[in-house]
TrEMBL record:
Domain Mycothiol-dependent maleylpyruvate isomerase metal-binding: 15-139
PANTHER family: CONSERVED PROTEIN
Pfam families named among the record's database cross-references: MDMPI_C, MDMPI_N
Protein name in UniProt: Maleylpyruvate isomerase family mycothiol-dependent enzyme
The species this protein was found in: Pseudonocardia xishanensis
Amino acid sequence: MTLSDGLSDDAVRDALVAENARLAELVATADHATPVPTCPGWDLTKLLRHVGRGHRWAATMVATRATEVLDPREVPGGKPPADLDGIVAWLRASARAVPDAVDATGPEVPVWTFTGPKPAAWWIRRRLHEETAHLADAQLALGREVDLAPELGADGLSEWLDLLAARPAEMLPADVTLHLHATDVDGEWTIRPTDTGIAWEPGHAKGTAAVRGPAALLYLALLRRVPLADPRLAVFGEEKAVSAFLDATPF
């Protein structure tokens, strides 16, 4: 896969269900009171509730063709069962609800999103990468190695930059550009400041600072799930520029 290719619609759908199944399998025998250090104040119970309810929330907005944000607390079926087997089954069904809702409504039907009205299918990719981030949180909490596939890491990084680019906030000084370079897939990203926030583009460019490493680690570093000091990442140029950018982005 190359960055310009991206993931196909079918690959995004399959990955959402598959990554959700991996999370369900991981927590099926885990202590749900385990703290999640990458989400301060959370334990696994709260993480699972957040992921499952979030999937159902997105599915409900698609199914109702929402034109404004819905209160997640009012989502049908949004409260998970109390028993372990029940919450795992509930989590699995939650992910499947998103593509099912898109199919029933129509993938091109506009619905509310964080970045303005978008085709309903937009929500499948958004929920996939909500899933990949929180699967990593759970793996780290349980002392497991994060094993996100490189192509999912690359797509997650692009999707996150899309969300940041739609956010009107100062994240980079006017004279700072950043470059990210994946070492395990054909992926490079250049991030530049704009008058209203940031923009990004695929491809190589010299920046104020550059970060090289596996695509999944670049993605998780951008989400502040792994530190820039991770030995599998290499930072060139002004490391403080990268750190300042990360500090200016939402958690």
